[in-house]
Amino acid sequence: MRFPRFDERGPLTVIELGALRSLNAALLTARYELQSASSMWDRLQSGGDVADMHEAHTTLPFYGQAIQEIASGATAYERHVALIAWRYTAAAVVLGVTVLQRVAEAKPPLSPDTVEELCQEPTLGLLHEALSVPVADLVPVRDPDLLDERTRTAQRWAQVRDRVDDAIDLVVEIAADEEAAHPRTKEEAAGCLLTEHCPPHTDPVYNGVLEPLFDLAGEVPFGISRIIAKG
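Above: the chain's sequence. Below: its structure in token form.
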């Protein structure tokens, strides 16, 4: 989803609009690169299946070895890109929701320091809080006959919020498995950054969360635009 057009003379400050645009561009780039990395991994998996059949009739393992060596690097790259994508996408959601709520409630503009802070990767707890904001109620519906749009939007946001809640639980589980001193409670995990608690030898904490988060991050600027257009 692309970035909407905004009137430079509108209620958004230069730094708010610039930050929203920059994060949107960053997350779109990361999303495309992640799709490419995932396609590479799928292709290598297929190659591995072919190698298994091929080497069932030979004692020379070089084909399979090559696939395994390449796949190892592809897996590491895919996770690397996914974590970068998470950082920018989660920040885009938190900043976007904060600006959306500010505009909807006619509050004063965010300070440059606040905007800069919100552009950083949020803790899982801050992301959960942003996903708890009633965005569906703040954004005007497109047509009186489409009031169920608001219900569907609220449901989608609640589903992603629940998945973030699951990710917080998973961070606690990983810490326990690793016998780490921190985090030991859900409250502690909520104060953590996902990118710092996603060990390479574990299933990615972002599984099931990142893809729908991409969609929400892309929708928020359009929600802001609709609020502004409604006046």
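The CA atoms of residues 174 and 202 lie 8 Å apart.
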